[in-house]
């Protein structure tokens, strides 16, 4: 064991008592503070949890599950039960427009301590966020919220001992007695994942910016989004499931577009189809070509395809010098001579 006056082995050149020994003392003090805050938080959280188990909240519990979980698989979802419990108690907006922590406060305010009330107020303001380590000290670590650009110190140095300046994470911070602690599981993420999530969240916020005064308010109301990212990161099967769902939706959308296009093409070619069924081989190409030019020049046309096809055949045969009457063509297409005369006039006018 090193003496207090020996050089510290960390290579700083300072005596052990002024270097790492001091760091250990500072770190230990911070650890004790965090432990006390965690204990206070856990005690209150347990009370809220018991309150939320009342039968009258069972329907809300089921609604929260539908919102929170990605897959319908009990074995997989069991892994995230702790996350879900936090979400249900602190984030799920019930039918009465309140979250469970507010419901608990309003039903128990006369029995709560001043500290309990303060913790509850901080819980109201908490959310899952994306954080980057910007400074590491012996007794605290400075985190920057990548979505709000706000900075916060956390004394939870033991939990974050493997994080360096520049490291990123998904985390949830709650302040208890002026000590910021991290609750639930804190997940380390790469810069690439951080950028993807931040861009997605900012894009969503941009769509609903008029409804929320700032990004923090948006996150408080949509914490489930970050919890869903956490589920994907912690279980690859969920990420694969979402990938397959996305591909399936894209394929379905492509099929729907293709069907729509086929319907449009089919609709546009109905006159051509009628012509092919009725016009002799020596005239069919001329009829189809004339009709396509007419369509291109005039856009959408109204009326039955038989009337237009009859007028086209009559026109082409007249141009070819055949001795043909409107009565003959009208009978062939089962339309009245007046309909043929009207469509033929339309063709001539164009």
TrEMBL record:
UniProt xrefs under Pfam families: DUF7986, SEC-C
InterPro entries (UniProt xref): Cyclin-like_sf, DUF7986, SEC_C_motif
Gene3D superfamilies: 3.10.450.50
The organism's place on the tree of life at top rank: Bacteria
Listed name of the protein: SEC-C motif-containing protein
Lineage: Bacteria, Bacillati, Bacillota, Clostridia, Peptostreptococcales
């Amino acid at each position: 064991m090193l003496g207090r006056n020996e050089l510290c082995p960390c290579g700083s050149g300072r005596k052990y008592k002024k270097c790492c020994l001091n760091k250990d003392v500072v770190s230990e003090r911070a650890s004790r503070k965090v432990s006390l805050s965690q204990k206070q938080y856990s005690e209150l959280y347990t009370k809220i949890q018991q309150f939320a188990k009342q039968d009258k909240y069972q329907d809300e519990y089921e609604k929260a599950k539908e919102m929170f979980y990605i897959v319908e698989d009990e074995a997989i979802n069991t892994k995230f039960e702790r996350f879900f419990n936090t979400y249900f108690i602190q984030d799920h907006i019930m039918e009465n427009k309140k979250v469970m922590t507010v419901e608990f406060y309003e039903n128990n305010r006369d029995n709560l301590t001043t500290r309990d009330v303060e913790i509850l107020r901080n819980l109201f303001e908490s959310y899952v966020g994306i954080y980057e380590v910007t400074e590491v000290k012996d007794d605290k670590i400075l985190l920057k919220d990548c979505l709000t650009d706000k900075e916060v110190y956390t004394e939870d140095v033991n939990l974050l001992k493997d994080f360096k300046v520049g490291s990123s994470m998904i985390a949830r911070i709650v302040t208890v007695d002026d000590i910021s602690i991290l609750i639930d599981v804190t997940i380390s993420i790469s810069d690439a994942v951080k950028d993807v999530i931040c861009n997605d969240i900012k894009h969503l916020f941009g769509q609903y910016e008029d409804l929320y005064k700032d990004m923090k308010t948006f996150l408080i109301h949509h914490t489930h989004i970050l919890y869903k990212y956490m589920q994907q990161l912690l279980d690859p099967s969920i990420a694969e499931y979402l990938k397959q769902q996305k591909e399936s939706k894209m394929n379905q959308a492509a099929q729907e577009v293709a069907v729509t296009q086929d319907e449009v093409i089919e609709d546009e070619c109905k006159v051509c189809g009628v012509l092919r069924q009725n016009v002799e081989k020596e005239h069919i190409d001329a009829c189809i070509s004339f009709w396509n030019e007419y369509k291109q020049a005039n856009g959408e046309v109204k009326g039955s395809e038989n009337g237009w096809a009859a007028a086209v055949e009559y026109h082409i045969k007249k141009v070819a010098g055949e001795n043909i009457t409107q009565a003959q063509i009208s009978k062939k297409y089962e339309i009245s001579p007046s309909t043929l005369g009207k469509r033929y006039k339309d063709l001539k006018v164009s």
